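Sample pair:
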Amino acid sequence: MELLPIPVKKQPDFMTTEYSPEEQVDVVYTWVDDRQAGYRELLLQHAIHKRDKDPARTRDNLDTLRYSLRSLQSHATWINHIYILTCRPQIPDWLDTSNPRITVIHHDQVMDSACLPTFNSLAIICHLHRIPGLSRRFIYFEDDMLLLAPVTLDDFVASDGLQYVFEERRTAPRLEQIANPEQEGGWNLALAHSNALLDKKYGVAARSQVNHTPILIDKTSWEETLRSFPESLKSTLYSRFRAGGNFAPDYLYLQCLLAEGKAHLVGHRQARNISGYVPLEDFWPATAWSLWRLQRRRPKWVTLNDNFGAKPNQTAVAMMRRRLQSWLPEACDFERR
């Protein structure tokens, strides 16, 4: 059943594009795992702030990428090709790189050497559109996102050709609301700076945060969005970690589409029916509660956000591993046999 979008004013010069069932749509993942040799040591050489050392940003201790690939094979057979964007020389040790439908791309293949090494996901995703051979439209997955039910392109795009943007209940932070930038998280800083850029371009407005969700991206529109804010783009590209003056490319892209009438905003009540979010906490009853709520709602996809500390609670980890295996028990074609 198609979602009922909240009406938005369309710009008269914008031509909607019909999405054909035959259109090739790729998927791009961003992934690193600091358990691989040398990565953590390299990160610590460059880290400045305490937040730079947060292992939740750089580990895959649940092998969520493996389960996400299983979910694609189970629930999105129409996906054309899969790219995994990561730092050299990382490759998941379980990945079957001989599979012709999957390609590992390293940062140095798409990024300026002066930006490297980078541990800034905001900088990394600014380069998604530069992946060689990538389809004109692609879906961006973070490695902690997976599908829980069959999906089609109709779950991302309305019948008029405009894509959906899934809203969260919370409003996005603003610069004037951040009392101590030195103590603030890099994601909130990027959202606040992005809001300031949007205010300047489109006028001051209260904007909701958008769901942590797979995002359909048009390469041309994505690049145009990035280049609309050249100073902030440069700041983001050359920050090895998230920092003040960085923008959040994915948030900025979706908000620009909404401001220009090129997307439909799906309110948070509707969004909850299709998009799930589970914070993985060391206090395992909290994680169990979030999983129970997810099971009741049965959304089409979920983000499993790592809120574990430096030493994740092993009861919570074991519980989550069992749940992943129960959701997606069968190995996929992208795993070594």
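Confidence is low (pLDDT under 50) at residues 1-17.
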